[in-house]
Structure formats: structure tokens, C-alpha cells
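Following the same procedure, sequence and fold were stored together, as reproduced here.

>
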Amino acid sequence: MRFGLEDAAPPRVQCDLLAVPVAEPGTLVGVAADVDGATGGRLGQLARIEAFTGKQDTTIAYFAPDTPFARVLAVGTGTATDPEALRRYAAVAVRRAREMRAARVALSAGPNGADVAERVRAVVEGAGLGAYRFDRYRSGPEAPVESVAVIVPSGTREALGGALRLGESAVRATCLARDLVNEPANVMTPAALADVARSIAERDGLGCRVIELDEARQMGMGLFAAVAAASDQPAKFIVLDYEPKARTGTSPRAGGAARVVALAGKGVTFDSGGLDIKGASGMATMKGDMGGAAAVIGAMGALRDHDVPVRVLGIAAATENMISGHAMRPGDVIRSLAGKTVEITNTDAEGRLVLGDAVAFATREGATEIIDLATLTGSCVIALGDYTAGLMANNQALAERVLRAAVLAGEQVWQLPMYPEFLDAMRGEISDLKNSAGRQAGAERAAAFIGEFTGGTPWAHLDIAGPSFCEDRGAPPYMPMGGTGFGVRLLLRYLASQG
């Protein structure tokens, strides 16, 4: 889908479908009023007949054959006036456009104002994410929307063009993460994920290192190796390394004091639960247990576009958690890369194991802060629902920066506590730690476990078990069924703001 800017008055835009946002109580004002005038007042008449109130995500459509835009769609934005409202509006509009087989769509970015660039970016993100479909295994894919013109009243063309390009980049990165999650587990193996990482590295000039299982064992990654041991698919510990362009003739790492942000993603490409096997219903969507790694790889592929000013390490600990004679057993004691020992009390608590070695590796590589993402616990879904990630951290300043980035990205994140008793519960009887300690405070205890391997490095943990994979048709309109790519836009907003 192609995006472009359009600064003609909305009623004069040539397209198959023109969409305008309408706030509650549904009164047609501003751009909507101008478009209503071009229809001879018939759009407003239809709104009254249909009792259109501007409620969020509701629509009315009017066929206007004597106008340049042929059809007009009014989309309710509710009472919100922030970029998230426009993101939802654009997603609804593009979804309806596809249903109406409108190839050329024009979307109003609303009235003029100081935040017009943010509105342009929100519209592009909403449209691009709303148009996403994973249909490569279907014999009859739907006709796509071919182009979207974002109508802006005024503004510096360079700045607005930059906002449009950032939105497009965020959409591409998020949709890549969605594709990685949506691929079946027999296709998106750890080796296939490593191939995607290599391709991104070659395209964008990133460093790429893929650590094989034998090497990981020799390095001391006992936790990662224990999870990987039962699978016939070779595990891959993937490391992407982004270096920013030097500015003002100075190396970004001059003096050795530069910040190095590590992103660590859980990459369990299929999770059977191991010997503590999942039930059939719990296993059905476990191809998506690598949503954290998908988000990391997707974000790493957009860092150049966003001119991220700090060095970034992208770590994806990719493996399956399967069952065989080599599988880890309840009661086994494993030594980690950080030197700590862990008793296995539940083989289905494997994500925290691979992340334990991942964050320890990040610390060894000189990371000055770490953000990990993982589809980690059902407890977090119970606490926060399907669309909100849980944030836990050992550094409040870092947590607050992540929360600010989440607001800008329109991705819902809620901070959960990290009380000392959560770590106390994870202390082992015959080992330093155990990997599971019951269901109470499950998300917080899992986070406390991972935090023990950071060596005190500032660290934030995002439990994305809820929003990473969508099974509810009542989700926000830009969140498709299946993989959502949650976390990519948050990471890009965060990293681009660091200098």
C-alpha cells in the first residue's frame, strides 16, 4: 500500500473513498462539514436518519457519484482527541475501504495545529496496521487497498513527509513481527528466524552473530541449552548489533561512555510445555510464543529509518520447548551463564530461563540498560487483560521512559510492582533459584527471577502475553487476529528519543 500527502481541500480530492473523522455527538463540523457541503447536505441528512453519534469506531457511508471522491465515509472517534483516536479512525476507514473494494483512499488528518506531524504519523500507522492481513496460505486473498492519501491542511512539507515516512517504517516493522508470529511453527523455526535476522543485517548494515547450541553450552548458557535440549530443531541464539552513524565527526562510542541499549526477546517458536505438558487448548496458539523475539527483530530492522542515536543490541533467544528423552525434568538443577543455579520446578516456565541467559549475555556485552519482551505469563493476562502489557523494572527512571514511549506509540502498558517478597518466593531449597513458585503474583515473580541475571544493570521487563496474540474480534481496529507485533512501535519510539 502506497502512502502520500495531499494538501487539496478534502472535497476536491480524487479517490474512490474519502474518510473523515467525526467526534461525539456526531455533529459534522470542520472537514466533515466541508465534505457534507460537497454532497449537498446529504451526508448530514444520512447521519440524522441513521442516528449517527460519532461513537468510537462506528461508521456511515454515502455514495456521492457527482463528486471527485465518489464515496464518503464518516468514522466516529468518540470523545478522544489524541493521536490514538486518529490511529483507530484510519484503521476503521481502511478496513471498510477493503470491504467496499475501494482501491484509492483519502484520509483526513484533521484540522491544522501544532501536532499535525503526529497526526499524520498516527493516520499512516492506523491505516497500515489496519490493512494488514496474513493471507499467504489462502487461495483467494481479498483485493487490497492500493494507495492512501493523507490530507493535511498545511505544514512544512519536509516535516510532514518525515512523519509519513516514520509511520510507514513503523508499519513495516510491526507487520514483519506479525508475519513472524503468524507463520506456522513448522515454517518459522529457530533457523528460519535466524535467516530473517541475517537478511535484515545485510540490508541495513548491522552486525549479526548466530550462536549455535554447542557454542552456547560452551559459553555457559545452561538455561537456554536446557530448554533447547529436547527439540530436533537446532536452537539459535541470535544477536543483531546496530551502530549509529557518527555525528559531528565523533565516534558514537568515543571514550567508552556511550549508551548501549540491549533488547532481549523470548523466541520460543513452539512451546509444548515440555514434560509438564500443556493441555490441547493451551497449546493451540503456541507458535506465537516467540512474540518478544519477533518484536525485537522487527524493531531492529527499522532503526536506520528512525536514525536511532545509540548503539542497540537485539537479542533473540530462539528455540522450541519440546518433549524427548533429552528434555529437562522437574527437579533438574541447571547452571546459568551468570553462574547462578536454577532448580526446574516446572518445565512450562521456560521463557524466564532463556531470558535469564539472554539478559546475562547482554550484560557481558556491555549493555548499559536492558529491555526484555516476552509472552511470559498467563498471570499477566489475568491481571491486565488481553490488550495491556505488564511492565516491571529495577530502575524507575527507565520504567518511566518506557511508559512515555508506550503512550506515544499508542500501546497499552501498565507498571506492576517489584516487591522483595517476589524474589524471596523464587529462592531455591537446593539451588540459588527455582524457576516457578506457584500462581500467586506469577507475572511479578517471573520478572523477579529474570532480574537476578541482569547484574544490577538498569532493566525493564515487558510481559506481552496478552497483547502479542489476538484471539478476540473485539480488539482495537488496527490489531488483527493472530500476531499483533505489539512492542515494535514502543521500542522505536523509545530508541529514537535516546541521545
